[in-house]
Protein 1
Amino acid sequence: MDQGSFHPRPLLCFADTYGGVNVRPTVFKSNPSRPDSAEDYDGFASGLYFLFSLVSSRFGALLACEQCSVYHTTVVYNPEDRVREDLGAEALGSQAGRASTRCEESIAAIATPPGHGGIGIIRVSGPAVKRVAYWVLGEEPEPRTARVYEFLDQNKSPIDQGLAIFFNNPHSYTGEDVLELHGHGSPAALDMLMTRILELGTVRLARPGEFTERAFLNGKLDLAQAESVADLIGSRTHAAARAAKKSLEGAFSKEITSFSKNLRELRVQIEAEIDFSDEPVGVLDDDKLRAGLDEAAEALESLLCRAKRGALLGGGAKVVLAGPANAGKSSLMNALLAEERSIVHNSPGTTRDVIESEIDIDGLLLRLTDTAGLRQSNDEVETEGVRRAGNAIRGADLVLLVLDDTNDGTNYHEWLKGVPSRKSTIVILNKCDITNRPYGVIPDFFGEVTVATSATKQLGLNSLLEAIKQQLGYSIMSNEEPFMARHRHLRALESAKVNLAHAAANAKDRRGIELVAEDVRIAQQALAEILGTVSNEELLGQIFSTFCIGK
Ligand SMILES: Nc1nc2c(ncn2[C@@H]2O[C@H](COP(=O)(O)OP(=O)(O)O)[C@@H](O)[C@H]2O)c(=O)[nH]1
Ligand SMILES: [Mg+2]
């Protein structure tokens, strides 16, 4: 038998041909509730499957009829089934792929930050919530109604007084019963109340992020939304907070879902084309396939671009000022910050340590880092400073190579050697007030992005900030509100991009269509990871452990 011509694909005919019965042929599971379900035929079906593998040619029509006469439920074909099976139920955006997880344990935590404040909130979630309410409030509160209560200790004397709100499952943040006690923001009173709740014995202290983790597990949020909760809490600029809020509302998830859906449709067509390549159905010709892949690649690129901007918003960027001693690095840092942060002096070797400060430009948080001038020195402290400067350069998202235009500009390439070749770099020719070089971007400066500045006269700084934003890929797009993204998301999108590129390469040869299907499947899988529909325990642990307690 010709093994080469064998396709181990379990499809035999279109579903439509045999009505609405829709059982995946790979499963061979009968449905005992149906009289025609061929119960007890599972073994027979497996046997048939084994036999199929010996058939030396495409067996679609032949075995479809064969099967039909026995029990057609096992042979009905629907290309969507395979796509769906790979992704785990409705992986694309809906929560159905994640089994609702009701935790047996109840958890509690102080949800407000430590210290004294007007209000302190304790949150309890889980099956013991009603019992806690009964012991602490003396009754089970009306769901979703704020009421003033006395919070009672075991002797029924009040610990504190405040609002209590009960959210019955599934209509709560976690999807479980939740009780919120809004007392006074006194660490002592909150501590007493927490002790009271924990001594009931049915509740334990929540781990960081455990409330949100439960919300995720119960299908209230997808993983990208859950991450944006932490991003919103940790946001340091208005733009970052707004972007995190957008992601929490599902803006990023929607984009991923919609793109995945398109990819999925393309995949269904590719799968059908493979399965019916010998039949005159003509699902997807070469041009259509290539056009579909090109379109997907384009959409992914735009998504990646926006996600990069979102990731920048969330994490900010480390921008390191490096270069020879006395070029004006510290002066430039101070000019950009509009404050005297670094010591400026005309004697070389003044800056000996790494000095960091943050600046918000159009919502983008830059962590500006001033470093010691790169030079040989007999001074141990300065040598250590130069070593640290090297580390800072290696860890930078963007290096500003500051050169003194009065003498270093001509041998800029020597200085460039000190910067790793793949680092994003801007060359700055400082002290242009002395050389009379026009300030601003210098076009075509030996292929480097170069800006002429005067730190002392504050010239060329706006051009420099624009160049920084551009180099970091952060440019404000008109009516598009940015969404928050993380490096984890970027990695997944990059991986999808690589796989789509493979798919496009494989699509050049008709014989590679099976590989195309596999590439698209892996790309789709990478996207599903973003939403957490195919996430693993370790990843979830990593993500939720970065949350604060009580969220
Ligand atoms: N004329 C002029 N002098 C500058 C400029 N930037 C820095 N300087 C001077 O150059 C000297 C070294 O500056 P500094 O910022 O300490 O350089 P660093 O060693 O690279 O940090 C100081 O005397 C500064 O006042 C500039 O743009 N124009
Ligand atoms: Mg300095």
Protein 2
Amino acid sequence: MGSLECDVLIIGGGIAGLSLASALAPFSSVVLVEAETTLGYHTSSRSARQLIPSYGPEPVVDLTRRTLDLLADVQGSTGLALTVPRSFLLIGSAADVEAKTTAGMRTLSHAEALELCPQLRPESFEAAAIDPDCVGTDTDLLLEFHRRSASDDGVIILTGAPVTSAVYDGEGWNVRAGRRGIRAGVVVDAAGAWADGVAELCGVRPQGLVPYRRTAAIVGAENAPRVGTPMVAAADDSFYFRPDADGVLISPSEAEPAEPGDAQPRAGDVERLIRRLDSLTTLGISSIRRSWTGLRTQRDTGLPIVGFDAGHPGFFWLAGQGGYGFQTSSAIAELAVVLLTGADPADLGADPARTAGAEAALQPA
Ligand SMILES: Cc1cc2nc3c(=O)[nH]c(=O)nc-3n(C[C@H](O)[C@H](O)[C@H](O)COP(=O)(O)OP(=O)(O)OC[C@H]3O[C@@H](n4cnc5c(N)ncnc54)[C@H](O)[C@@H]3O)c2cc1C
């Protein structure tokens, strides 16, 4: 098979790689390679599908708010239902809720919280707060939107094409991905849990990224909350649940270090959470319809890594999105376009001061 040439080669076909591909396509020639035969196969098909503007450190909050604006623009121009209203209700002890109540959230009385989620047993929480700006998102639709808009703008997307070697000759990269050879000016590492491994393959120093397991399940419940009612999360990070078209989505919110790979639920994890939810709620969970585990990968600062590697002019990081990969996706892609092309943020409709702040906060170590 012949070789390909491009300005930018994106490694990884999850939300990070695909959202950059669609944002960058008008400016550069782009090839995206994905190791699996299906785009979004790993963490990007395993999320809770929630965009929570009050969640995360300050740079993440800024990126989330910008992403919500950008998605609203897409929604307005395409008519695609990328987001749906779904607020975020935090419950727990008074101390835990106070510690987690950030700007943009509002404290609720016990009665107000119960009105929003009557399935909570009154004695199961002391205090509550709400993020009313939080929305749910259709991640499949979002991935497909980016795939289609990237393809329409000329991006070549190869699946079943794992990058196995990459050599820089001072002017560009010679990369082997599956059976294809690719010549690229810049390599973007959007390889999720594998991002440090891809860096090493390219001869670049890793960033100390750690993948953390998180499991979720869709369960059947006799007293399921109505679609459109809030996602409910424990302020001590011990569980969350939310209504879903197929039942109720539940998660034990675990964050255990793991190796990169096709993570799977462990026997007993979901059952233990169901017993806990039975004691805290009147959901009446009756069956496990499906369950999955994904890897949320981040560095010790908890912030994504976006920018050229300090020691390698041809290597660009787009990794470490942790539990914020969807809610920050469009803003991170926008920042990456600015850094990769030298475009003026104002020309993209972005605030130059905020863009500079994000660049500083997210730069590789
Ligand atoms: C249970 C759970 C709930 C979550 N809930 C939310 C949420 O509500 N909101 C939110 O914003 N985020 C959430 N997240 C986090 C979010 O899903 C991730 O941040 C995001 O999906 C990461 O996307 P990514 O593109 O970086 O990684 P991935 O989707 O893992 O994509 C990386 C891709 O790179 C490919 N790759 C690796 N090595 C190579 C190679 N050598 N060659 C070619 N390709 C390669 C992989 O096959 C993979 O497809 C959740 C995560 C989990 C697990």
